[in-house]
UniProtKB/TrEMBL annotation, chain A:
Domain Exoribonuclease phosphorolytic: start-end pairs: 8-130
Gene Ontology molecular function, alphabetical: RNA binding
UniProt name for this protein: Exoribonuclease phosphorolytic domain-containing protein
Coiled coil stretches, renumbered: none
Gene source species: Paraphaeosphaeria sporulosa
Family: Belongs to the RNase PH family.
Annotated Gene Ontology cellular component terms: cytoplasmic exosome (RNase complex); nuclear exosome (RNase complex); nucleolus
Automatic annotation (TrEMBL), chain B:
Pfam families reported in the protein's UniProt record: RNase_PH
Intracellular or extracellular location(s): Cytoplasm; Nucleus, Nucleolus
Stretches assigned to the Exoribonuclease phosphorolytic domain: 57-235
Entry-linked Gene3D superfamilies: GHMP Kinase, N-terminal domain
Protein name: Ribosomal RNA-processing protein 43
Coiled coil: none
One CC-aspect GO term: cytoplasmic exosome (RNase complex)
Species, as recorded: Paraphaeosphaeria sporulosa
Family of the protein in this entry: Belongs to the RNase PH family.
Major localisation: cytoplasm
Matches recorded under PANTHER family: EXOSOME COMPLEX COMPONENT RRP43, EXOSOME COMPLEX EXONUCLEASE RIBOSOMAL RNA PROCESSING PROTEIN
A Gene Ontology biological process term: U5 snRNA 3'-end processing
GO terms assigned for molecular function: mRNA 3'-UTR AU-rich region binding
Protein keywords: Cytoplasm, Exosome, Nucleus, RNA-binding, rRNA processing
TrEMBL record, chain C:
Domain Exoribonuclease phosphorolytic: 45-207
Source lineage: Eukaryota, Fungi, Dikarya, Ascomycota, Pezizomycotina
Name used for this protein in its record: Exoribonuclease phosphorolytic domain-containing protein
GO CC, one annotated term: nuclear exosome (RNase complex)
GO BP annotations listed: nuclear mRNA surveillance; poly(A)-dependent snoRNA 3'-end processing; rRNA catabolic process; rRNA processing; U4 snRNA 3'-end processing
Domain of life assignment: Eukaryota
Pfam families listed in its UniProt record: RNase_PH
One MF annotation (Gene Ontology) recorded for this entry: RNA binding
Amino acid sequence: MAPEAVLSHLHRADGSATYTHNGYCIIGAVNGPIEVLRRDEMPEEATVEVNVRPAVGVGSPKERHLETLLHNTLRSVILTRSIPRTLVQITLQVRSLPDEDSSTGVSPSLTLLPHLLHTALLALLSASIPLSTTLTAVLIALPSTNTPTASTQLLSPTAIELLRAKSIRSAHVFAFSGEGKMLLNESDGTFSYEEWEEAAEAAAEVCCKEDGGVGLAEGMEVDGREGENLDDWLRSVVRTKVDHEQRWKSAK
Amino acid sequence: MAATTAAAHQQPVHGPALTFPRPIFAAVAPHPFLQAHLSASQPSKAPLRANSRTAHEFRRVGINTGSLTHCNGSAVVRLGNTSAVCGVRAEILHEEHVQGTADFAPSTGNEAEEDLEREREREEIESLRVLVPNVELSTGSTPQHIPGNAPSSFAQTLITRVRSLLLSTSLVRLSDLRILYTPPSNPDDPDAEPEPQLKGYWVLYIDIFYISIDGNAFDAAWIAILAALKNSVIPHAFWDEDLETILCSDDPSEAHPLTLRGLPVPSTFAVFEGKRDWNESGEDEEADWVLSDPDAFEESVCRESVCVVVDCTGGNKGTKDGILKRLEKSGGGVVDRDVMKGLVKRAVDRWQEVETATNAKP
Amino acid sequence: MAANTDRRRINAPSGGTSAPVFAKPVKEPGYLQLLRPNRNRGPNELRKTFLQTGVVPSASGSAYLEVPTTTTTSHSSLIPPTSSLKIAASIQGPKPLPRSAPFSPTLVLTTTVKFAPFATRHRRGYIRDSAERDLGVHLETALRGVIIGERWPKSGLEVVITILEGDEDTWWGDSKAEGGSGSGWGLLNVLAGCITVASAAIMDAGIDCVDMVAGGVAAMTRDGQKILDPCPAEHQDIVAACAVGFLASRDEITELWLKGEVGAEPDELIESATHAAMGSVSVLREVLLENIETKTKVASEGSKRRLEDLEVRD
């Protein structure tokens, strides 16, 4: 299934998005460019602040780690130099996780990371923050070679799929920019360079292969067309939003 | 440096030159400072960084183990001006204090199920929380971390990475941490093999104190942990029926060292993105450098960083061998698949160096 | 035992853990006394001190002090008989006070003392406890009298002390029998070490001082004998002890911490403590000379290096 996204539904934030995919639901809000604390002010660029709030309880070092990853990645996407001495504040609230998330055998940070990245980007688009490029991310899991499902990469697997394929030998999260540059990679487990390279290639196809790319699952349907990649999905989300905002024009 | 003479040759009529002493140049314009170093072209030798290392050169590892009295294992690790102390302390978690169910299933010893076994063990270690790593940076080790504040975001990121690597590599075996008790065989039924009972676990507190930080805090922390765990000795613990508690033997010959799974070694790289319009002469000139083992100055200038964790125990070093334990990369788009291949190779070479250093007897 | 959860650190099992209990001292009463360490140096003989400056290059000044144990570690038991003393000090500043701070005509001194969790026989927490705060206050008193604060108005100086290993209050076998320690003899040793190492770090930072302050400890036994630099684990009969921060060339004391039943003549004990401090002074002097030598060497090399300076053009 393609991810679902609702944009600009929070009225008090400059930009917002709710993103739902495979049982993960995250609300993102962006405020910016706003005034920055003197302590954090940078003379030549904008300060980016990311807050991740877990579904249950208060934050832990795990959330701080995710924030650091998101901060590093988004800072390279946002045109921080065109809005210097300001603050772009991104808040991501995890609303729900699939029930099986904690028992998949893959680090919960990895399964959550692509969804957080997508939510943050959609919220940034909704807030019209100047960006140098877009970004798409995907999780790839390689099951243990001893199991019957050997040598099949699981592309953007659901928590149940991970649970069924147990045990997972390695899990990889890749994020690519709109131009196909690898922006982020987090890989964990035991794997060879060749396995990683294959995973990276598959991820690039899912994220941003120009045409003839392999889509996510078969059911993925965007604007009635099948076999689209995540980049096209992102475009369609934005297109829908722009169409919606332009409706005063068409409703003559 | 060589840049002076080279630049002077190319542009002899370009207004009065501004010359700064090195530290002032580095403070005023850190980015051009590093670029000037790296692009200083002297045909005879590779360009050097500001710390007079080549781009591929790591700092030498210095390890000193077993110097702390009250630890089961300890190590002091130096990477140039970065130094960290790691102390491992074992305490006992009694069975009645274990949260949730501690179902103890003896290993089946089945080779095919090894992956599954490790998986189960990893989950058990994680849910029991028998490995407790923590870092302390507020020791005056850097001007950024002043004591009196809660652990910074940097410290929390660092410890999350350390903990998740400890868990995902299954470095410590749960069998080393279990405290078992085999009751004497039943006199009525001498043939029945008595079942071993679980009485508790050893909990390892792994604390890292930085004395000084000059970049690459993660590698220093991890190598310190490796060396300290290798150095650790766990006393023999047994269930005393009379006192109904766990007692330990203080006899060093009965104590056992930890048997670690492999030797995963991290290598951190920083990507320096040169300004392409700095030198307009050549367009396809190499403008990005991937610097091994960055120091604090380089970390402040670089945005993209990569960490490669490899474990070549067993002698496998090829691209088909499952030697990679972790890849982390964020902050930019310079490192692609081709560059990563080179970095993995550099990490494998580094593994050899660290392996030699950890095995050397003091 | 159950520690409150700290959401910024990795937490231990919520059920709590306990330090291992060794069987032999519990089961065989005679065995315990075999492990007791004894002082094998004269009453006026000090332990060897190792002191080094410049261990933290990014700090303006730093030093590391180590007083190794004199008792040979036995190879027949895993229980360490005595502790050694290992302290690192780092100086940050002088630097401008934050805007929010009120005006100060003199240097504002902040001292932080923290034990590492593995510094003592009982695991320490991550948050500073009262003993650590106490040490910080005593150290500040010792240092404030030496630094010429008027030369840095509106500035702050941060002295950060990390104790990697600290002296114990009593021998562990005794403290268990009495149901806990609390004499605090060990803290005096730690304070004296802190004063000496902080003094070396301040010297390394080049902060103007009226003299070098050095720490020293003396103790009095039940029979009235004075012992210099006591290692509390080696003595059973200490009744009073005293730590001083001593300025040798001015013959002044900036800090005095006296504990226990001194009797009518506390002066003698204080006098002995200053004698112990003289030992630290001689170590400090050596380190100071070494420090100046290396600094002048670096300075002369630096002037040579200026010829190779990089050039910026506009």
